[in-house]
Amino acid sequence: MNYSDWVLVGTTLFLGFVALFVPFISEWIKRKLLAPRIHVSYSHSPPASHLTYWGSHINPSLREPVYFLD
After folding, report:
1. Distances (CA, A) of 2 to 5, 10, 12
2. Which pTM value belongs to this model?
3. Please, what are the averages of pLDDT over each run of 10 residues along the chain (70 residues)?
4. Domain residue ranges of the chain, discontinuous segments joined by +
């Protein structure tokens, strides 16, 4: 094989590698670097939620405290 053939084989392999992995890398960049950052803060106190009780109509003594979100 001549030197030009080796260059052609190397270039073909490089371009095949780039064609397979660039879409993966671009999606990774979009997900990791360009994604919005969401920070959620919550507290178990008004006005975010209120404490009430959830129970059975059959046995009213079995009531559990629950928080309802507004």
Report:
1. 5, 13, 16
2. 0.44
3. 92 95 91 88 78 81 82
4. 1-39, 40-70
